[in-house]
Amino acid sequence: MSNKKLVSMEDIVSLCKRRGFIFQGSEIYGGLAGTWDFGPLGVALKRNIMDLWWKTFVEDREDMYGVDAAILMDQKVWQASGHTATFTDPLVECSNCHSRFRADHLEGDKCPTCGKTGTFSEAKQFNMMFQTNVGSVADENSISYLRPETAQGIFTNYKNVVDSFYPDLPFGIAQQGKAFRNEISPRDFVFRSREFEQMEIEYFIDPKDWEKLFDAWVKDIEKFLSDLGLPESSVHKLEVPKDDLAHYSKRTIDFEFDFPHKRDELLGLAYRTDFDLMNIQNASGKSMEYTVKGTSTKFVPHVIEPSFGVERAIMAVLVSAYTEDEVNGEKRTYLKLPAHLAPVKIAVSPLLKNKPELVTKAREVYDMLKKQHGAVMWDDNGNIGKRYRRQDEIGTPECVVIDFQTLEDDTVTVRDRDTTEQKRVNIIELPGQYR
Ligand code: GAP
Fold this sequence. Notes:
The chain has 13 helices and 24 strands.
């Protein structure tokens, strides 16, 4: 029996550390809060998710253009977008222990650190952008920020893309990359980090079409979440009430997921109107108007923005895949990852590692599969049962074992992660198995 409901944060954090997915950033010096390092399997999983997103939303579509903008941008970008003035969270400090908290994350007036009540200061607005200086002179003019979202690197390249590609409306510009926010209290593993990765699209439209295009984006996002292996029952669409909408948004849907800490935001879909392009037009003095081909009709396009966070997607994928069952009376933990996301697609082992003839044959099979599939792991550590458990825990869909029968008839054992069933397959049929 699988047990999905009881996946705890501890289960996920401990698996990630034990098996080399995600480590605390700067762990060797005690850890830097809100930063995380991806280990060999974590980086593979992350790339698979990001590549699937890029393939789905950029490569497989005709209306999408990719960019990779600089992280450091002119401070005017953040003044025009409103981030310098308003990208803030409310900060309170406990007068007893001096711990600082995000006011809207507190329940009641008891300090979570020292337990005293009634010690919080008045809330102050704290700007979450990391400030730096560009160049050797540290003055007002050299101030820049690590970008708090990838979106502005898209908006500032809108005109470049229009001028060099003349796309028809609607069209989108997509970007993946790092974003930085000096969160007051980073928490819930990678869910709220200070350095994280986003995958964002600004989809430029004629405002008369916004409703039907917004609905189409809801469907495209749902399909992508299903391709990530997230069960429909764990994903919830929260229609942000009119009163809570950001001032530039006419409609926002938060896609929430049942994370171990609580149901919380996985990604957002917002109709941002012409807010950003108009800001840029006003601040730069350059026209952001789009001329409809073959006509004299000109207007500043409106924007629909699907905004994904990579770390939250990774957490949702791990929570969805994390499964416990019992095999031969023993508890087993495995990651039921979709094969296209698994960091390792196939593990290859000789049944016994002290038998040179088995090792040589297994190496031949490994080399053949590695050439074809890349993400193939050589695993001869411990006995075969231990290897299966380890591969199960990292989500490897199939293990290929070379044994004495292989030397006689060129067949190997292929063991399935989910069913634990084994079948014998001829070596020459192996590559086809994984096509
Ligand atoms: N351009 C719009 C924008 O950045 P957002 O709701 O602030 O909107 C979009 O962020 C997504 O980025 C979130 O839905 C989440 O997936 C991710 N994200 C935001 N802050 C994060 C943080 N501190 N740690 C990890 N992911 C975060």
